[in-house]
Amino acid sequence: MVSTLYCAEAQATNSITNPTSVLSIFLSLLLIVAIIFSLAYIMRRFNVTPGSSGQLKVVASLSAGARERIMVLQVGEEQHLIGVTAQNINHLSKLETLIDVPGTAAPGGAAFKQKLVQAMAQKINPGMKGQHDDN
Known about the structure:
The model is unreliable at about 105-110 (pLDDT under 50). β3 (about 80-85) and β4 form a beta hairpin. By secondary structure, the chain is α+β, with helices and mostly antiparallel strands. Strands 1-2-3-4 form a four-stranded antiparallel β-sheet, with no helix packed on it. The chain is built from three helices and four strands, in the order ααββββα.
């Protein structure tokens, strides 16, 4: 009875220190970290920002450094140029000539959702390239 208990305890200890299980755990953690970094890259690449609420919208954004950004905000019918750093936010100018908001002002421009659907349709069926261009 004691030897059976001792063997089960030894197997549990050996399974944790087994090089195969340690490698499996390490690769699993590496995969999770890679997924997190790839999602962060995609969010940065496509400039995913929190959605607009009501009268306040981010029209354009440009990275000016590691933690600095220049943004154009639309407040109602006015647009303002602001500088954003890690410590503060500065109002740089009120724009006299408004910048067109993508997707709403340009009737011929396709929304991000439509572009994504077209890209995925082309990836799944490459022969569909010419069929979606007339939309």
